[in-house]
Design goal:
With 181 residues, the protein is of the alpha/beta class. 27% of the residues lie in helices and 19% in strands. The longest helix has 17 residues, at 117-133.
């Protein structure tokens, strides 16, 4: 795990338990992978002149707890106990402001291109570790950005296969139960 601090976070509200894991998809520029642009966005150093799309998003102040690259490499931007600014206007289980009670994981990808097997494995391993630390997060409380902001967000998109994530989660759990790494 690489650590890169994002300034776009703050403390959680007192008593706000963490009970949701939100899966996102991100690519910068849209549809392109690799490069320094996601990190630049999350650290407020995005060069608005580097790509026409960046001029539209240069003033955003956003972050996620972590990003999982196409290779499966994970970069953490915000400690899990702090509030990352990933969900925006959102609602889950009748509660608004999902940033208050969720952890946000970005997958480097886009709605209509398959995510990599390495990403599913890293996401499952990360989710299992998060679920161990935050037992209120269960498999049924792992949701997409589109689930908490319908009509506003579409990620992780139709290319994200939830059944595959669930199968990999079960495989990770089985390996943990049997002491296999």
């Amino acid at each position: 795990v690489s650590l890169v601090a994002s300034p776009d976070c703050d403390g959680r509200r007192v008593g706000a338990g963490v009970d949701v894991l939100v899966v996102h998809g991100i690519s910068l520029p849209p549809g392109e992978f690799g490069g320094p642009w996601i990190e630049a966005l999350f650290t407020n150093t995005l060069d608005a002149t580097a790509h026409p799309y960046f001029a539209e998003i240069k003033d955003l102040r956003v972050s996620a707890h972590a990003v999982i690259r196409r290779t499966g490499e994970i970069v953490q931007y915000v400690p899990f106990q702090r509030r990352a600014w990933h969900a925006g206007q959102s609602c889950f289980d009748g509660r608004e402001r999902c940033n208050d009670f969720s952890i946000g994981i970005e997958l480097e990808g886009c709605d209509d291109q398959p995510y990599t097997d390495a990403q599913y494995v890293t996401l499952a391993e990360t989710a299992r570790a998060i679920m161990a630390a935050y037992p209120a997060i269960t498999v049924s409380r792992i949701v997409g950005h589109s689930d908490i902001a319908p009509g506003r967000k579409t990620d992780p998109g139709s290319a994200f296969v939830w059944q595959h994530l669930h199968a990999v989660l079960l495989d990770v759990e089985d390996r943990i139960d049997h002491g296999i790494s």
